[in-house]
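Weekly structure sync, notes
Attendees: PL, DS, HV (note-taker this week)

Item 1: Flagellar hook-associated protein 1
DS walked through the input record. Source organism listed as Clostridium saccharoperbutylacetonicum N1-4(HMT). Sequence as pasted into the shared doc:
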Amino acid sequence: MSGLFDTFTIAKRGLNVQQGNINTTSHNISNASTTGYSRQRAVIQTTRPFGGMSRFDSCSAGQVGTGAEIKTIERIRDVFKDYQVRTQRTANGALSEKNSYLTQVEDILNETSDTGVQQALSDFYAKFQTLSLDPTKSSNRTVALQQAQTLAGALNTRYTELETKKNDIQTTLGSDVTDINSMLDQVNELNKQIAGVSAVGMTPNDLMDKRDNLLDELSEKFGISTKREKYEAVDITTTLGSNTVNFVDGNDFTGANCNRLSYVTGTSLDTTTNPAAPTLTVSYAVMGDTTNIKTITITGSAATDATQLDTIGKGLMQNRILVGDQNGLVQDVSTNANDLNGLSAYSAAGNATITLSNFNTNSANVIFDIKTGEVGGKQTVQTTIQNSMNQLDKLAAGLAYTVNAIQTGTDGTATSPLTNKDAIFVTKATNGTAGVTDTGINAKNITVNSVLQTDPSKLNCGLTDADTSGEHAGTRALAIASLKNVKMDLNKIDVTSTSTRNDFFNRTSAAGGNSGVTFKSTTELCDLNGNSTGTTMDNYYKSLISDLATVTKGVASDLANSETQLETYENDRLSESGVSIDEETTNLIQYQHAYQANAKVISTVSELLDVVINGLMK
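Item 1 (cont.): predicted structure, written out as C-alpha cells:
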C-alpha cells in the first residue's frame, strides 16, 4: 500500500502537469494574433499504477494510482480543413489575378471620356463629312487629316497600353518563380527540422505551423498536392497534364529527385541562317536568376516548321515558366527523369539542343502551363488581353484598307486608275520613305501619311483623277465619311506583317478570309459594297468593349463567390485551430486552481510527516 511519500510524488506530478497546462495556455495567448498559429493543448495521461500485478501483491484493494503526466503537446489542426482552404485559395488566386488585370484592361479601353477610340472614330467621319461639303477649303483638309491622326493615335495608345499590361504580367511571373522556389526550399528545410525533432519522439508544433503557412501561400500561387511521409515530413507535387512534378520529397531532403522553376527571358526564331532547318532559341534565367542565363535551341527539319516554332515561342513568352531539375536546369532525361527528354549533351556553357519532334513529344514535362492559382490566372488572362489587341489590329486594318482604297482608287491590285495617289493611313516604319505602304498595318503602327500632313492639298477628295482637288464635288471625301455605315466582317481577316489591302478584299485561302467587303472598279471612285452579315467599325469596337465587360463581370462574380467560400472555410478552420482568449483565460483559471490544489496536497503531506516524525520522537 502506498504511503505518504507516494502521495507526495503524486502531488508533485500534478504540479508538473498543471505547470505544463499553464505554459501551453500562456503560449496560446501569446500567439493569439500570430498568422497561421494553431492552438495547442497538453495531452494528459495517468502514470503507471501501483500494485495489482499478481496475486502476491500486497495491495489487496486493487491498483493504486500514481498520478498523471503530460504525454505530448499537440496542436489542434484538421488536415481536411487545410485541404478545403488550400483548394479554395488556389481557385481564388486565379480569379483574383484575372479580375485585377481585366479591370485594368477595361480602364484602358474606357469609352466614357472624349478621348476614346469611339469618339475619335465618330469625329473622323464627321470631319470628312464636313470636308465633302467644301473640299477646296484648305482648313477642312487639315482638320480632317488631324482627326485621322488623332484616331490613329488613339489606336496606338490603346494597343501599346494593352501590350504593356501583358508585358507587366509576364514580368511578375518572374517574381513568382523566385518566390515559389524560395518557398519550396523553405518547406524542404522545415521538413528536415521537423523530421529531426519527430524522430526523437517530440512534436514540433510551431515548425509545422510555419510549414503550413508556406503551404497556404504556395496553394495560392498554384494548385499543389501534399502527402504525409514518416516523421511528419510532407511531399509536394503538382500535375501538368498527365505528368506529375515533384517539388519536395519528404523522404529525401537533399532535393536530388525534386524540381525547381526557371523563367523564360526571351525567344528568338531564326529562319534565315538555314531556311530549310529553322531554329528557335529559348533563353531562360535559371531559378529566376537573371545573372545565370541558359539556352535551349529547338531545331526544325523543314522550312514549314517555322510556323510551329513561332507558335511555340509565343506560347513560351506567355507562360514564361519552365520546370527544371533541383538546380533549375532543363536537362537530359538520363540526368533527371522528370526533365525534358531528347536534349543533347550540354555544352561547356550549360546550353542544350533538342529537335522539334522531341520537344513536341516531351514538352509537357517542362512547360509550366498550370491554369490554376495566381500563376495560372496570369498565364490565362493574357489570352483575353491578346484577343483585345487582335481586335484592335483588325479594326485598324479595316479602317486603313477601306479608307486607303477610296483615297487611292485601288483595292491593292496592280491595275488601278489612281495608283499614283497617296494613301491616308500607312505604317510607321514606312512613313516618310519612298516605299510608303499600308502592308502589315495594325493598331500599333498605324499613322497618317506624312506626305499628306505636309501638303494637305494632296488629299484626294474629288470624283475623278482630273478632279482630285474636289473643285466640282467632294465625292471621295463623302465616300470616306460614308464608311460609317459600311458593314464588314473584321473577325474573318488575319493581321500579320505581310497582310495587304488586297488580302482584306480578296483573300479566301485557308490562311484567312476576306472581310466580305467588295471593291467596285467600274469608275475611278472606289465604291465599296458592305457585308450584310457583318458590322460597322463603330459597332465592332462597341462589341469589343461589351465582350470584355461581360468577361470581366463574370470573373468578378466568380471571385465574389470564391471569396465568400474561402472566408467560410477559413473561419471554419479558425474556429477549431484558432485561439480564443476567453476560452484560454477560463482554462488558465482552472489550471491555477488545480495547481493550488496539488500544492495543498504537498502542504498537507508535509504536515502529516511532521506529525509522524516529530510527534513520535517526543
